[in-house]
């Protein structure tokens, strides 16, 4: 493991962060959680701007808990950018290298590499103020990459950009990360962005690591209902009765895969998150229309790039489905659930 947070506890004011997690080398790891969940705080601890009251932070098995920030060789792209507005692009990118007294010739070579990497060749003499939001963000990225950091930390690098720039720059960052095999911690509160760009996601909520997994694992088999809802559309059904692996709900009976509910529970903190009741999750993609014996009604229909967006009703539940078939509002249609997943209510 490249980075480990070992039973870390950090308190600032009323806010308490608990972190016990590890991050592998060369991957894109996302910290995903709502605003105020402690994502920036966790990065600041890793960067060395804050020191935990308890626990240890390890970098390549070395204890860096009390090491000053400048010794850690970590690249940090701050949430509020912090480029020097009155400086040129090249001065911004090479700022850290100058501070480290890297010879001018070497700086020039590195600058050229970095400008190519972030697709800003020819921009070196421009003033930062003359750049667009996306270009500025690429300058900031180049500056964070300049010292060849052991790990790159990106705090909501895309949140201030327009949707199209944001998507493009996200892919660009992912390409750089994969091409350089660079361990990158990417902070976001945007679920889609997290799922598209990362190898691994940690879900943060109220200063706790709720659970972690690959985007596919977290989307398809989350441990908690909170995660399931945070990551996308889905229907949550209470369990009415249970007999071995047969579960009864208002939607009928479902047979569960054995023991699938217990896996992955190493992340939670049982003490502060008491288990209330389990639920059954059904993702829209797990429902097939046109077969099965459940008769659902189409309440409304919209056409869009993903096909028809149907607002459906079955029993007391309203839910959204995407379908390639055009079904008029008001029609009744058969449906079947090909898959369900059991999770804990939180
Ligand atoms: P996120 O990045 O997930 O939005 P933060 O890590 O910035 O969340 O903040 C987590 C919590 O810590 C918030 O409740 C915030 O109000 C609090 N907080 C942040 N900075 C300070 C500070 N310097 N002093 C006291 N509390 C702070
Ligand atoms: Mg933040």
Compact description:
The protein is 24% helix and 35% strand.
Textual characterization of the structure:
The chain is of the alpha+beta class. The chain is built from nine helices and 20 strands. It has two domains: 3-227, Rossmann fold (3-Layer(aba) Sandwich), CATH 3.40.50.300; 235-343, no CATH class. A six-stranded mixed beta sheet has the order 6-7-8-3-9-10, with helices on both faces. Strands 2-1-4-5 form a four-stranded antiparallel beta sheet, with helices on one face. Helix 4 (104-117) crosses helix 5. The protein starts with a strand and ends with a strand. The structure holds adenosine-5'-diphosphate and magnesium ion. Residues 39-40, 79, 155 line the site of magnesium ion (MG).
Distinctive features:
binds adenosine-5'-diphosphate; binds magnesium ion; single chain; six-stranded mixed beta sheet; 2 domains; alpha+beta; 20 strands; 346 residues; Rossmann fold; four-stranded antiparallel beta sheet
The CATH architecture designation of the largest domain is: 3-Layer(aba) Sandwich
Q: CATH superfamily assignment of the largest domain?
A: P-loop containing nucleotide triphosphate hydrolases
Radius of gyration: 24 Å
Largest sheet at a glance?
Answer: 6 strands, mixed
| Domain unit count | 2
Averaged pLDDT: 89
Q: How far from one another are the termini? A: 30 Å
Identify the CATH class of the largest domain: Alpha Beta
Give a list of the ligands: adenosine-5'-diphosphate, magnesium ion
Shape: globular
């Amino acid at each position: 493991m490249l980075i480990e947070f070992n039973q870390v506890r950090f308190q600032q004011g009323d806010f308490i962060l608990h972190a016990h997690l590890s991050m592998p080398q060369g991957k894109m790891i996302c910290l995903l959680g709502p605003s105020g969940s402690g994502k920036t705080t966790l990065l600041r601890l890793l960067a060395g701007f804050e020191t935990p009251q308890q626990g240890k932070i390890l970098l390549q098995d070395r204890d860096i808990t009390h090491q000053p920030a400048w010794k850690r060789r970590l690249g940090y792209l701050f949430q509020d950018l912090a480029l020097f507005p009155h400086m040129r692009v090249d001065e911004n990118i090479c700022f850290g290298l100058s501070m480290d007294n890297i010879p001018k010739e070497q700086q020039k070579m590195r600058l050229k590499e970095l400008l190519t990497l972030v697709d800003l060749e020819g921009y070196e003499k421009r003033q930062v103020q003359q750049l667009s939001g996306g270009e500025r963000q690429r300058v900031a990225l180049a500056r964070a990459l300049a010292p060849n950091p052991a790990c790159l930390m990106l705090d909501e690098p895309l949140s201030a950009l327009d949707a199209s720039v944001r998507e493009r720059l996200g892919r660009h960052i992912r390409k750089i990360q994969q091409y350089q095999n660079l361990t990158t911690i990417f902070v976001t509160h945007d679920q889609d962005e997290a799922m598209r760009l990362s190898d691994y996601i940690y879900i943060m909520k109220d200063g706790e690591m709720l659970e972690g997994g690959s985007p596919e694992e977290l989307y398809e088999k989350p441990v908690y209902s909170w995660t399931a809802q945070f990551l996308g559309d889905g229907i949550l059904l209470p369990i009415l009765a249970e007999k071995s692996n047969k579960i009864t709900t208002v939607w009928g009976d479902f047979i569960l895969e054995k023991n699938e509910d217990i896996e992955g529970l190493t992340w939670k903190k049982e003490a502060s998150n008491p288990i209330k009741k389990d639920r059954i999750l059904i993702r829209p993609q797990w429902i097939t229309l046109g077969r099965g014996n459940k008769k659902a009604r189409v309440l409304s229909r919209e056409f869009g790039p993903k096909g028809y967006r149907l607002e459906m009703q079955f029993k007391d539940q309203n839910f959204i489905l995407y379908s390639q078939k055009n079904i008029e509002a008001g029609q009744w249609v058969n449906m079947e659930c090909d898959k369900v997943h059991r999770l804990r209510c939180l």
